[in-house]
């Protein structure tokens, strides 16, 4: 039975780049897939008379959602594919902020697929509303706001590299002043902790440096916070696995994303490792 990955998301958020990445990884990729043909392609691949090389179609990625008129049909098509193919269907949704999407379209001078008469910003708002049910049902959401092509490729390779784990976890640090990650499932706010930014000798360092790490971990409230989050994870991680969740993104935020959140993300990743997972670590704003 083939494994299907549906690549959907906002226009300009990187669907074509994602398709190229999966093609490089050996997936059978169909770009600009018409929505009515999604289940037809699945039927063709599943038939014994399939003329394609079976090994080449074990993993199939379908890039969808480019045509405005077909977006309304996408939810039903994905649901039908899941009914026929079971748990071997995953939905990847690529996201980005409105401001970044506007800049990307202004840079390319391409017409937005939604084609709202009022302009690009209105087209983006309309597309976001139409895609809301798709986003809500996604297995993986990746925010490409701050990612270039190479960084997006690395995120996709890390996320979709086959592992023996039943659920892949990413722990991300970020700064609230740069925006909450759109692809986070759970957000922890550590801005209540004393800020190393106001200590002159610590300001130029990051949470990866030992002096900052010790400053944060030595605060009386830090251990209690980490222990309570640890207890929560001990409860929810097995429950997520039991419910069949494949990907989980845990975000930890401080003001700038360089000190406290980095330390706590590193610490939480170690705690999660004790539960038998191998979490990915990403410090989104550490170089800002």
How is this structure best summarized?
The chain is of the alpha/beta class and 288 residues long.
How is this structure best described in words?
The chain contains 9 helices and 9 strands. It is of the alpha/beta class and 288 residues long. The strands form 2 sheets. Strands 2-3-1-4-5 form a 5-stranded parallel β-sheet, with helices on both faces. A 4-stranded parallel β-sheet has the order 7-8-6-9, with helices on one face. The model has no long low-confidence stretch (mean pLDDT 88).
Distance between the termini: 45 Å
Number of alpha- plus pi-helical segments? 9
Number of strand elements: 9
- Rg is 21 Å
List unreliable stretches of 5+ residues: none
Give the key terms.
alpha/beta; 4-stranded parallel beta sheet; globular
Write the layout of secondary structure elements.
Elements: E1 3-9, H1 15-24, E2 28-33, H2 38-46, E3 59-64, H3 71-85, E4 89-95, H4 98-108, H5 120-136, E5 140-143, H6 149-160, E6 168-175, E7 186-189, H7 210-217, H8 220-242, E8 247-254, H9 260-273, E9 280-283
Parallel strand pairs: 1-3, 1-4, 2-3, 4-5, 6-8, 6-9, 7-8
Helix pairs in contact: 1-6, 3-5, 4-5, 8-9
């Amino acid at each position: 039975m083939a494994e299907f990955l549906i690549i959907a998301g906002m226009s300009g958020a990187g669907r074509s780049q994602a398709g190229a990445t999966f093609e490089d990884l050996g997936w059978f990729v169909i770009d600009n897939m018409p929505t009515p043909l999604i289940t037809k392609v699945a039927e063709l691949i599943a038939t014994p008379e399939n003329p394609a090389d079976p090994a080449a179609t074990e993993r199939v990625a379908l890039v969808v959602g480019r045509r405005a008129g077909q977006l309304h049909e996408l939810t039903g098509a994905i649901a039908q594919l899941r009914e026929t193919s079971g748990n071997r269907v995953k939905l990847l949704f690529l996201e980005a902020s409105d401001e970044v999407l506007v800049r990307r379209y202004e840079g390319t001078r391409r017409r937005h697929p939604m084609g709202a008469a009022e302009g690009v910003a209105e087209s983006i708002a309309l597309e976001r509303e139409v895609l809301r049910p798709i986003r809500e049902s996604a297995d993986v959401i990746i925010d490409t706001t701050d990612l270039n092509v190479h960084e997006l490729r690395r995120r996709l390779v890390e996320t979709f590299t086959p592992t023996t784990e039943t659920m892949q976890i990413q722990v991300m640090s970020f700064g609230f002043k740069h925006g909450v990650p759109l692809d986070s499932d759970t957000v922890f706010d550590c801005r209540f902790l004393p800020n190393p930014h106001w200590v002159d000798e610590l300001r130029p360092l990051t949470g990866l440096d030992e002096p900052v790490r010790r400053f944060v971990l030595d605060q009386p409230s830090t251990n209690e916070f980490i222990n309570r989050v640890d207890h929560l994870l001990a409860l929810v991680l097995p429950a997520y696995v039991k419910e069949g969740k494949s990907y989980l993104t845990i975000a930890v935020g401080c003001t700038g994303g360089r000190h406290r959140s980095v330390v706590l993300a590193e610490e939480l990743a170690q705690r999660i490792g004790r539960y038998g997972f191998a979490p990915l670590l990403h410090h989104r704003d550490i170089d800002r």
